[in-house]
Design a protein that fits this description.
Strand content: 15-25%
Number of strands: 5
Largest sheet: 5 strands, mixed
Shape: globular
Strand order of the largest sheet: 1-2-5-4-3
Structural class: alpha+beta
Order of helices and strands: HEEHEEEHHHH
Radius of gyration: 17 Å
Length: about 130
């Protein structure tokens, strides 16, 4: 992967993210190093909110703090009443979720290895048809 941030800037971004989440009382903050698994990001941060309102407040606060520090969010996913909101800061993607959503989607398990990700690769129809015979 081509690094989108210097190591120093990546550390600054991660420090900002974890501090902002801690300040807003996020639970179970986890940082995953995924740079060897994807070209899309270098780190993934996952944190629990205690309610949908808390998840939204975490995202609002993080977005504001990131902008103040010069880390312009590339995107935000998750609606007003969502149990999962994502903020894309480029090399760092942050998921703020209700515990039930976190358990159901199991991002930590999914992003734990290239083998886990390979299981999601779609098999072309021709190959699927050939496997049935």
């Amino acid at each position: 992967m081509t690094n989108t941030m210097t190591d120093e800037r990546l550390k600054e971004c991660l420090d900002l993210v974890t501090t902002a989440l801690e300040d807003m009382k996020a639970k179970n903050i986890t940082v995953l190093n995924v740079e060897d698994l994807t070209d899309v990001m270098e780190r993934m941060v996952i944190a629990d909110g205690t309610s949908k309102r808390h998840v939204r407040a975490l995202a609002d606060s993080l977005g504001a703090e990131a902008k103040k520090a010069g880390f312009m969010p590339l995107g935000r996913e998750g609606g007003h009443d969502s149990d999962w909101t994502l903020i894309d800061l480029g090399a760092v993607v942050v998921h703020m979720m209700m515990p039930q959503a976190r358990e159901f989607y199991d991002l930590e398990g999914l992003w734990s290895s290239s083998e886990s990700l390979a299981e999601l690769v779609a098999i072309p129809r021709e190959k699927k048809a050939g496997r049935r015979s």
